């Protein structure tokens, strides 16, 4: 397996519901945790909790110094399977988002190099059920948002 996968498109959608953002992330098997640039959180209107974690170096030799952490929800652009994960916040760097990859199916968020074996029928069924649940929840949230928007328009 590669140590770094480049250019995985993901969508980050914070629980505050303000807005989502599509970004391109690298996936690195050698970093201790996923990281996100502080500027991305600012663009999403999100706060983070300060922390002092030791600096670390990724597979490309870039040094990262976490200044905080935040829980984010995200999914791959090609999937509706949601992931909730703690990201450590860094001041700057490239890429904007770098995902930790645990190297096994329990921690890889469905991000694998091409060529891994196909899913079993049970895995496919489970994925379909999760996708249907997420689609339903998003449709319900969209209806709630549309209702709030109508109420705002009527109130003006």
Question: What are the salient characteristics of this protein?
Answer:
156 residues, alpha+beta, six-stranded mixed barrel, two-stranded antiparallel sheet, 27% helix
Please characterize this protein's 3D structure.
- The structure is a single chain.
- This protein has 156 residues and is an alpha+beta fold.
- It is built from 2 helices and 9 strands.
- It has helices spanning 38-44, 121-155; strands at 4-12, 21-28, 35-37, 49-50, 56-57, 63-64, 68-76, 83-90, 97-100.
- It has a 6-stranded mixed beta barrel with strand order 1-2-9-3-8-7. The chain has a two-stranded antiparallel sheet with strand order 5-6.
- Residues 103-108 and 111-118 have low confidence and may be disordered.
Low-confidence stretches: 103-108, 111-118
Number of strands: 9
Percent of sequence in beta strands: 25-35%
| Main sheet makeup | 6 strands, mixed, barrel
- The geometry reads as flat
Give a quick rundown of the structure.
This protein is α+β, with helices and mostly antiparallel strands. Helix content is 27%, strand content 30%. The chain has helices spanning 38-44, 121-155; strands at 4-12, 21-28, 35-37, 49-50, 56-57, 63-64, 68-76, 83-90, 97-100.
Can you lay out the helices and strands and say which pair or pack?
Layout: E1 4-12, E2 21-28, E3 35-37, H1 38-44, E4 49-50, E5 56-57, E6 63-64, E7 68-76, E8 83-90, E9 97-100, H2 121-155
Parallel strand pairs: 2-9, 3-8
Antiparallel strand pairs: 1-2, 1-7, 3-9, 4-7, 5-6, 7-8
